[in-house]
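PROTEIN SPECIFICATION:
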Amino acid sequence: MTVLPAFMAEDIHCCACGNNDKNKFHVKYQKEKFAVVTCDVCNLHFIPPYYRKQIEYTQYKNADVTAAVRAGNNWIKVQRHKLRFKFIQKFIKSGKLFDLGAGWGHFMLAGQELGYDVYGVEISEQPYLYCVNDLKLPVDHIDFFEMDESKQFDIITMWDVLEHIDKADEFLAKCNKLTKPGGYLVLQVPQIDSYFAKRHKDNWKMMGLDHVNYFGHDTITKILARNGYEVVKIKSSFEIKLFIMYTLLPLIKKFKSKKKQTKAQANANINAAERQQYFNKFTSKPMWQLKLFVFIHNIIYNTLSALNIGEEMMVAARKVK
């Protein structure tokens, strides 16, 4: 166990249990550009504030990525998100849905098709513009903390958002104010106690400076409970799209490269636009092939989830206070 250096202890705070005793944290992993520390009270792993000062999400994606997304197949993207709605519909089948961190909007598009009254916010400019201009979705380009608390929703969703939030406890407290009594919060986050995270440790591909929080079953349950939510279901999630873009593509790049490099080095040299363009190759086939792909994809996804094999987890929680 490595003692926490003084500079890492600056403003340190555990968002899951509230611990702010500088002597009750230790260094879990030391990377080249950041470190992951562990709270000794609740075992939450996170990147301390010292390293996070350089992160800015308002320009998280650029115009090249937007062009690649625009060239993709929206039908197949919607089918992927309908898998998420199968999980959601076990708890709430209709109502006002607020997608927090709407991204490129395809989840909201799927929600519209299924009859939900959707609304979203997105802080990154390019995804926001794509949502409102290309998909004609009701998305606002605002800071979530500035959102009008008189708005109330039956369900709030967050897909791969909470791991990016420095003050995740304050973030969830704000969510609680926007959730109707008995309403639901459904989210997905990387899972630090998953098989893949345990196997790869500090080389886990989900670990990076843009991900501040690394939740497991216990810590996600704890932080939600502290903010008025009771977890009703946790399901393992294996994102095949991410596997294609972040595992398969780097492997291909590595083998094709004339220079000797590791998969991690190959991964670091691929930008977001190139990843999206590579995924587009899988989605530019005739419709009958796409339908077959979706059918096989769903079988694989559901099988891996049932076997609890995945590096992310979907969490459904009901507001209880």
In short: The CA atoms of residues 120 and 139 lie 5 Å apart. The chain has a mean pLDDT of 91. The longest helix spans residues 287-306. The longest strand covers residues 179-190.
